[in-house]
Amino acid sequence: MIDKYDVIIIGAGVIGAAIARELSRYHLSVAVLEKEIDVSFGVSKANSGIIHGGFHAPPDTLKGKLVVPGNRKFDRLCEELDFPFERNGELMVAFSEDEISTLQFYYDRGKKNNVPYLEIIGKERLLELEPNLNPDVECALYAPSAGVICPYEYCFALIENAKQNGVNVITGEKVIELKKNAGIFEIKTEKNNKYSALYIVNAAGLFADEIARMVGITNFKIVPRKGEEYLLDRRVGKLVKRVIFPCPTKKSKGMLIIPTVDGPVMVGPTALDIEDKVDFSTTRDGLKTVFNHAQKLVPSIRSTDAITSFVGLRPAATSNYSIISKFFSIIKSFTGTKPEYIDGDFIIGRTTVSGFINAAGIQSPGLTASPIIAEHISDALLKDGLKLEKNPAFNPIRKRKVKHLRSILDEKNFSEVEKLVKENKKYSNLVCRCENVTEAEIVAAIKMGHTTLDGIKFATRAGTGRCQAGFCTTRILDLIHQETGIPVEQITKKGPGSEIVLTPLRKGRDG
Amino acid sequence: MNYEQSTKHKAQNIMKKKVDAVIIGAGPAGMAAAVSLRENGIKNILLVDREPVAGGILQQCIHNGFGVHHFKEELTGPEYAERYIDQINKNKIDLWLDSCVIDIEKNQDDTKTVVVLSKERGINYINTKAVVLAMGCRERNRGNINIPGSRPAGIMTAGTAQKLVNIYGYLPGKEVVILGSGDIGLIMARRMTWEGANVKAVIELQSYPGGLNRNIVQCLNDFDIPLYLSHTISNISGNDRIEEVEVSPLDENFEAIKSKSFNLKCDTLLLSVGLIPENELSIKIGVKLDPVTRGAYVDKNLMTIVPGIFSCGNVLQVHDLVDFVSEEAKICGASVAKYINNKLEKSKEIPLQKRNLVRYVLPSKVEIGKPALLSLRPMHPAKNMTLTVKTNSSVELFKRKYKNIFPSIMLRINIDVVPEDTEFVEIKFEKE
Amino acid sequence: MKKELICINCPQGCNLDVEFDKEKIISLEGNECKMGVKYAEEEIFHPVRMVTTTAAVMNGFIKLLPVKTSCPIDKSLTLNIVKEISKVRINAPVKSGDIIIKNILNTGADIVATRTVGKIGSW
């Protein structure tokens, strides 16, 4: 039995999800194959959630060209898809003369990228805007158009909307074989399922190079670039209103102070090229580095404020034979043709294999550019021969199934709580005490297919608070079991192999 | 939002209630406080707990060792809890279970409004004269102590493992390493072994064990489980599930000596690395916390700096014996009753200064003209020490010799009446 | 022969220094009370322990009944006792103090419920 589609997207992170939603605007049969047990479990789960202003990326790269148009899309997107988005702005701060000229460099770059309302502000105004900053700051580059979102809520919203509009999203399916046979792509997965499609979109994150290699495309490699981030206790409060950047280094935008859209402050990430695509370990050095840098920006931050940490692996694309390809790039640019791509830039669009479209190497500002990347991909498919007929029944609106009690409680809007409880009794059962998450939200998440502890964590924030799931783990296990029938010993943290408990005791007992 | 003015919320389904005292937490502290309040004549009491049963953490502590002081017999946790649950029932004290306090606010007239989200009853606004904070502790977790390495499944706090084994009936894993030699970790070493797991080691940061000696014997020695003192876990590996931990000895600065580290294969890591009083609600209403105990600063009546808000049990200071929790809560209940009847007197308070090896002393102030009951812990273990409490004019209020003192064993002492004209009182340990 | 023991009778955990021969205790130092004497003798010649574990409950408000041995039993039998108890299925209601198993493994000790579990259908 082979499942046939017009387009198969490999990877259901933010990029795969954005593309899925985009393609669901048309009369097409589309499937997304995701190797993890839930969407957004790869690169996207550790994303910092920043919608960039757009002054970092070089103007002659895809990153530079797509970041501002992407940024502009988010007001409408968050209205249509009902995910939280705050356009709070970002500041790149300078402490010295050298750094001030760096600011000027990025100001010019930002202007070239058409970043709106970009300005360099002086010490007085800067400390007025952000009183908790190190008083030694001299000035800053201010992009009020930047913002923050929750990356997995965004991803979930895109996927839900894509599903609403007919896209088939299949998780737990790892592509192990991909061949082109008589003009059709044939896929075999680890579970031994078979799929076929006329077109393939490669949005496979860290493994995009491996997928591309399966059809003979070998001109790029994905190098994981590790970043450690630390989440601070909510009690510390909103130390800053805007995302704070230092002046950047060669490897990364630097270690930031991020006031997340859900409330707690995040600091990091570090940037370290590694070999292992599954190395999600934090380090002692990482902790020291992050907090040293963070304290330079906001002196009141303490490493003891951290309640947890996590690691993200950015999929940095490099050419496979970088010296040779750089050489050819130089030659090509002399002869007037554009080089294939620039080291570290997005790799999006058509390839030497007709029907195979890349959406690879999407590191920062990939999240910001995601809606435009999706449009580019549908454009590439069109150019590659796919007929795009608009589907008049396409519904761009996706509403969150349940309200989150936490934000209502934060506002002390008890009359709203009363209403919620009256409508749905499950709102009166508080499951995660630290983040104020109720049974209503957790059951809704389970019904949406999030049946792992991590999936529920991303969908509801249950387990992310100061007790780090000490109180709610057993309750969530119970709820998953009640709603799905999955035996407790088969419920996992993030997919098979990560079961929470090993065996039931006292076989044959109740429950 | 001022609840007194929220009369627009007159809809029928909103529960409003007026009581004399709300006790947050129906564990051993909360229950003992409630019973004490009733014994002292207070009728209108509401006891609230977020669990579906009363008894707090005792219900999962199925081992014995409780009640030796208080009931003069050795009981298991559930038996100790049941003694108090029976009293709650006998006295017909109002008990709401599956109910979470989500907010507390002070009103203009010194009453407080406690907002309760109850699984059965929905949202409720309770107007009360007094509040007793008895929420107990949460466990310190991996996020707090930042163990480097991957984040696989198979890592949990010892208390969560205890709940899974004893209440839910699941074995978290088979090849177990335990970080921390506090009593919870030691008890779980034995419990897991009894249920068929192989506990490979207990790793302890300090140069001395964190739990009681008796537990070293009956939980580790009985099963030949090695205890590595002055060691830490310096790395965790494993992608989906934990596979291995790297154990390193520590130098004098508590830094890991990586060159001497060794690896232990495991599928489970239990963390028993300390308890943190669960004071998030307390902070909300303006209670000041002592950074050493992480519990509220209280006077001898166990009242916090917010009038009418009292604290007792583990949320006030981490106890080792539930017997002392019951004693403390009983005193608290009596004070709360006095407060409700406007009979809480307070004479002049003077500071207690801790010196030499005293890690903390509670309360941190004493009253002129009154004796006092003090709780304290030393900073590290020591032999042959004398504990003295003296006024600034060298009047001795307490003196006792101790062969052994341990940070893991709380001392409770009664000191003599503090004379008039005392300016401060000093408490310290001295070598004999 | 000499041995160092830690008394486990109460949370105090006195450090005991015991001298003994094949049949009796010759000398004992370090105990703060008389229980230490009894403990030393038992621990040297026939060590005993209390066992606390859980047994499955059917139709109860909770799924597991915490239980204990009515008195300390031969230390070498603890794992076997836990296994025996794990096989039992008790029907709710149970009262704290009820005897669940009489004379477990011929030790003379009973297995006693330590919690009252009322009858309710589901978990």
Q: Would you write up a description of this structure?
A:
The complex is a heterotrimer of chains A (511), B (432) and C (123). Chain A contains 15 helices and 23 strands. Chain A is globular, with a radius of gyration of 23 Å. Chain A folds into three domains: 2-46 and 152-219 and 320-383, FAD/NAD(P)-binding domain (3-Layer(bba) Sandwich), CATH 3.50.50.60; 82-149 and 227-313, D-Amino Acid Oxidase, subunit A, domain 2 (D-Amino Acid Oxidase, Chain A, domain 2, 2-Layer Sandwich); 405-490, Arc Repressor Mutant, subunit A. In chain A, strands 1, 2, 9, 10, 11, 12, 19 and 20 form an eight-stranded mixed beta sheet that branches. Chain A has helices at residues 14-23, 62-72, 74-81, 97-112, 123-129, 151-164, 208-214, 284-297, 322-335, 366-383, 405-410, 414-423, 439-447, 453-460, 473-484, and strands spanning 2-10, 30-34, 50-51, 85-86, 90-94, 119-122, 139-143, 147-149, 168-171, 175-181, 184-189, 194-202, 220-232, 243-245, 256-259, 265-268, 272-273, 306-319, 347-350, 356-360, 430-432, 437-438, 503-504. In chain B, helix 1 packs across helix 8. Mean pLDDT of chain B is 93; it is low at 1-13. Chain B has eight helices and 28 strands. The radius of gyration of chain B is 23 Å and the shape is globular. In chain C, the strands form three sheets. Chain C has a five-stranded mixed beta sheet. A three-stranded antiparallel beta sheet of chain C has the order 1-2-3, with helices on one face. In chain C, strand 2 (15-20) and strand 3 form a beta hairpin. Chains in contact: A-B, A-C, B-C. Chains A and B meet through helix 8, strand 18, helix 12, helix 15 and strand 23 of A and strand 6, strand 7, strand 8, helix 3 and helix 4 of B. Strand 23 (503-504) of chain A pairs antiparallel with strand 11 (170-171) of chain B.
Mind telling me the CATH superfamily name of the largest domain in chain A? Answer: FAD/NAD(P)-binding domain
How many domains is the backbone of chain C divided into? 2
Q: What integer is the average pLDDT of chain C?
A: 91
> Rg of chain A to the nearest angstrom?
23 Å
Cross-sheet strand order for the largest sheet of chain C: 8-5-6-10-9
Helix content of chain A: 25-40%
Count of DSSP helices of chain A? 15
Specify the structural class of chain C.
alpha+beta
Q: Please give the alpha-carbon distance between the first and last residues of chain C.
A: 55 Å
Give the assembly state of these chains. Answer: heterotrimer
* CATH-derived topology of the largest domain in chain A: FAD/NAD(P)-binding domain
- CATH class of the largest domain in chain A, named Alpha Beta
The level-1 CATH class of the largest domain in chain C? Alpha Beta
Under the CATH scheme, the architecture of the largest domain in chain A is 3-Layer(bba) Sandwich
In terms of DSSP E residues, the strand content of chain C is 25-35%
Largest interface: A-B, 61 and 60 residues
Strand residues, percent of chain A: 15-25%
What order do the helices and strands of chain C follow? EEEHEEEEHEEE
Cα Rg of chain C: 18 Å
Terminus-to-terminus distance of chain A? 38 Å
